[in-house]
Amino acid sequence: MTDPAPTRTLVIEREMPHPPEKIWRALTEGQLIEEWLLKNDFQPVVGHRFSFRREPVGNWNGVIVCEVLVVELNSRLSYSWGAMGMETVVAWTLTPTEGGTRLRMEQSGFGPDREANYKGAKYGWKNFIDKLEHVVGGMV
């Protein structure tokens, strides 16, 4: 038996001048998620199966199939992320800081044959997190 091929993990960290509770709402409330990420039927309940949806592009039907893996109120959220035959895991960690919150997003499971997916995710998540920060900044 051979060892599985090593996988890569994309990590993006950002300091935000908002309390974890406010960022948590944007990560877990469906309407807010839609404002910065994609249409969804997300519920912050471990085991909940949901999808993110957008207009189909090229060979992709526009659907990302997910399942909630971890929910720790105001601190950790994780879900599987399946699209175009690739399975990864997205994990969010919120750490309170003196000036607000350090947000850490990890997407793990990019195989050695998925370099284009890794690069696309790196570009995409940077833009999504910019939008997330904008949405959180506009919340009451």
Description:
The chain is of the alpha+beta class. The chain has three helices and seven strands; from the N terminus they run E-H-H-E-E-E-E-E-E-H. A seven-stranded antiparallel sheet has the order 1-7-6-5-4-3-2. Helix 1 crosses helix 2, helix 1 packs across helix 3 and helix 2 crosses helix 3. The longest helix has 24 residues. The radius of gyration is 15 Å and the shape is globular. The mean pLDDT is 95.
Query: What is the straight-line distance between the termini?
Result: 55 Å
- Tell me the helix content: 25-40%
Q: Count up the domains.
A: 1
What is the mean pLDDT?
95
* Helix segment tally: 3
CATH class wording: Alpha Beta
Strand arrangement in the largest pleated sheet? 1-7-6-5-4-3-2
The rounded Rg comes to 15 Å
Secondary-structure element string:
EHHEEEEEEH
Note the main sheet.
7 strands, antiparallel
Low-confidence stretches: none
Spatial shape: globular
The CATH topology assignment is Alpha-D-Glucose-1,6-Bisphosphate, Chain A, domain 4
Beta-strand share of residues: 35-45%
Tell me what the CATH architecture is.
2-Layer Sandwich
| Structural class based on helices, strands and sheet pairing | alpha+beta
Q: Tell me the total number of β-strands.
A: 7
Any idea what the CATH superfamily is called? START domain
